[in-house]
Amino acid sequence: MSDPFATTRDLFELPEGLIYMVGNSLGAMPRGVKPRMAAMLNEEWGAQLVAGWNGAGWFDLPRRLGDRIGAMLGAPPGSVMVADSTTLNTFKLLVAALRLAPGRRVILSDKGNFPTDLYVAQGLAGMLGQGHRLETVAPEALEGAIGADVGVLLVTEVDYSTGRRHDVPALVTRARAHGVPVVLDLCHSAGALPVDLTALGVEFAVGCGYKYLNGGPGAPSYAYVRPDLQADFASPLWGWMGHAAPFDFAPDYRPAEGINRLRVGTPPIVSMTALDAALDVWAGVDMAMVRTRSLAMSDAMIAAVAADCPGLELLTPRDHAARGSQVCFRFEHAYAAIRALMAEGVHGDFRAPHTMRFGLTPLYVSVAEAEEAGRRIARVINRRAWDRPEYHARTAVT
Amino acid sequence: MSDPFATTRDLFELPEGLIYMVGNSLGAMPRGVKPRMAAMLNEEWGAQLVAGWNGAGWFDLPRRLGDRIGAMLGAPPGSVMVADSTTLNTFKLLVAALRLAPGRRVILSDKGNFPTDLYVAQGLAGMLGQGHRLETVAPEALEGAIGADVGVLLVTEVDYSTGRRHDVPALVTRARAHGVPVVLDLCHSAGALPVDLTALGVEFAVGCGYKYLNGGPGAPSYAYVRPDLQADFASPLWGWMGHAAPFDFAPDYRPAEGINRLRVGTPPIVSMTALDAALDVWAGVDMAMVRTRSLAMSDAMIAAVAADCPGLELLTPRDHAARGSQVCFRFEHAYAAIRALMAEGVHGDFRAPHTMRFGLTPLYVSVAEAEEAGRRIARVINRRAWDRPEYHARTAVT
Fold this sequence. Notes:
The structure is a homodimer.
Chain A: E1 12-13, E2 19-20, E3 29-30, H1 33-48, H2 52-55, H3 61-72, E4 80-82, H4 86-100, E5 106-110, H5 115-128, E6 133-137, H6 142-145, E7 150-156, H7 168-177, E8 182-185, H8 197-200, E9 204-207, E10 222-225, H9 269-278, H10 287-308, E11 313-314, E12 326-330, H11 334-343, E13 346-347, E14 349-351, E15 355-359, H12 367-382, H13 389-392
Parallel strand pairs in A: 2-13, 5-6, 5-7, 7-8, 8-9
Antiparallel strand pairs in A: 1-3, 4-10, 9-10, 11-12, 12-15, 14-15
Helix pairs in contact in A: 1-9, 4-5, 10-12
């Protein structure tokens, strides 16, 4: 059988000799972005000017992009919109979810959730001023904490700092039993492992465009609303692009149908065009095979580190079902070690205070490279390659 | 004296033979955007990958852009941030303004304000659920409506549909007398006429990047917070980029200092890079000369239409002080006339139900072209060039 990923790597621009394992923070650049961006500037903005809103399809781009991403997530056409940032879409969806369970004041999440999800929930709770509060529990305790006082469950499938993967079907089952709507954050899932929103049955989902979807730095976010909820769905952020008839310039807001209500202001077409081009790499890609390869990569990396440096603490679950598409280790000098690894041709990232994190992106990194990265990680630790003053100096933002 | 605008036109990509008068909707593309975008893709995202957040300065780009725009608006460094859309920034600033006048429930604006400003205020009022409401009056009645019950004055300096310009200093004086904070929308001001936020003394301001700033379709928005308010300023939209220490990944939100609180999620760097490149055209441009030329353009256009087609109703004030940088006419068949004008090489736009709108952008359109556009407008009306079935068929979104 031929390797289905033999050709996908060539779709990406990657510096020679680098094993890039931060695709879970910023995906590598698909080669198709450059010609598409040049065409957008030459043939759309430069040539059509404002007529590009219709002529080049800019006006409908957020929804077209939503449908493209939705097709990767088991979401039917018209149920996903691309707009704004993950944080802002989470705000919209949390408000919508709380409306489904009136009187309930708890936004439930777990301490492993990405901080921006927690922050936006805290800000929303304060703004509502009706006793709403964010409650967070340990990831393992999340399922048990779902009860009748919970107004919304806000959960990220894969933990950004450990690679731990929640049992989302189990969470959804319990949430449903207690009448709790779910906002599912797929930032570390979409493009990394199979997702079937229809099968899961969650009410809402959200995610970003710049990790495994490779849409470029700060690429716009997508948000999903379950089809049966769209008639009554309401976002609190009212803007002209979410109006039923934006070009009537009517004095009062009248929400557009369904998913279009997630639109707020004028969409950032330049960034969206990069994301649109980036999505082309998924043509013909089978997400089940992506998952198989991702697990082979993490297994190989974990095994290589365990063989050569058995003392390095693995933070990522060994159980396949509980693992996303990244491998994390705890190391006292994680920051310096990540910098030393850069000198060894492995790009991972540091998460405070002591985490070494490696994202696995099957489309452009191979199992052999993941194994080789594991060997180099072990070598950097074993040889104390990290123990140089320049690797400890923190001059950068991240 | 040499024409200071003789060279600025060459900085823009414009189709041959077109008189482009929709720069107040989407600015023409500065030529510098293309090489900058190619460099961003090749040397930043493509080569540095995630390290571009520091190495290419992406993390600080929103604030650097804010300072660049602030310098055009009389705002000191650190008082302007680029983030999200105009609508979303207006939401943040309205909440911040209402906090300054506790107990007051009225968001005051005028019926000439751009609808998205009104919609976001309506959505906010509903969300707060404490009796807040948007009140709108006729533009001429706005100053008189400012009273002690008003929690915030939301005003756009130049009316998008008529080109009428408010007397902002008079509004601010009365607002101050009644303790009313002001959110000033500069969408049709920035890059079109002199603005001095420091001299005006308004508390907050907001605007978009894609009109006279030429940042590309849906270019990100900017928002200003008066320096003395920044210590206590609070945005209700809490995200990790607005945290005091985003890379600590702390469980609780702690707002960053000052203007950084306007940041929410991960910024759309691709769109922001286009805006950054676009701002280069302003080097050495004197806004007073831009204003002089803009008024000469509108005068010439109005005079040409009046001479050849005296019956066409002018919606834009004849008084210079009350005029922005656009000219609008009322015509029963405005939609068809705008389409007929396209065939005559003049690109204007239609605003429902009966407005023909022409934006004046001194950097890349000349006084002679504005006059010539006026002649062609008159000709299209006089010769009933608009009266063809294909010009009446409304197939497009706008």
